[in-house]
Amino acid sequence: MACDRRTLLLAGALALVSTATPALAQEAKTQDAKTPIAVIGGGNIGGTIGGLWVKAGHPVMFASRHPEDLKPLVEKLGPLAKAGTVEQAFAFGDAVLIAVPYKAYPELGKTYGAALKGKVVLDAGNATKARDGELAAEAESAGIGATSAKYLPGARLVRAFNAANYRLFAQNAHRSGAPMAVPIAGDDKQALSVASTLVRDAGFEPVVVGGLDAAKKFQMGSPGFQRDATGPEARKAFGIAE
């Protein structure tokens, strides 16, 4: 009788372990599921958004032609932040944030096209006439989503983090109350899902405005640019059904 009781207790304990172990494993996997991110450009927008991802637990490599210049930034952000060349960053990141002057896009795409192919790329660039000349005129005419796609072929492109000044992002990340909306646009549904997660991790609410063509609704100079809005306010402004 005692033997039977011990057998039953042992069987029950094993059953508990067998049911708990997958749950614990899944929980550990979820906690460890942080996306390595390449940030191309360590200026105001790259440093701000990349820094928010580091604080959220993502390993981030900031890249420029002179990675030694990024040493103060990565030292300030801690061990999850690294500096490297553009080539090293593309190899490092499962997702990429492009945060360089727009005039660099044609050369970036030409030089690193193979590395960009198939990558989820968050495109934060804006084109200005004073700095980018004819490229700005092209973006204005064709729409910035189409223009970025032209110069970054093969990338799974999502327009994101371009609709506001970096100061607004720095001030409003993880704010109390309703989070600040970040409009995004892209043609690849899975890339939009990855981008949405990264927008949330940075402390904002993603608002999918539409495909890449819809990016013109929040490009520089449009009514959707430089808006400090909540998710519901942004969806109403962009005519998106709740």
TrEMBL record:
Molecular functions per Gene Ontology: oxidoreductase activity
- Which Pfam families does this entry report, sorted A to Z? F420_oxidored
InterPro entries in UniProt: NAD(P)-bd_dom_sf, P5C_Rdtase_cat_N, STEAP_metalloreductase
- Top-level taxon of origin: Bacteria
Q: Keywords, A to Z?
A: Oxidoreductase, Signal
> Oxidoreductase as a keyword?
yes
Q: Which residues cross the membrane?
A: none
UniProt keyword Transport, yes or no: no
Residue ranges of the Pyrroline-5-carboxylate reductase catalytic N-terminal domain?
Answer: 37-126
Tell me the leader sequence span: 1-25
Cite the PANTHER family for this sequence: DUDULIN-RELATED, REDUCTASE
What's the protein called, per UniProt? NADP oxidoreductase
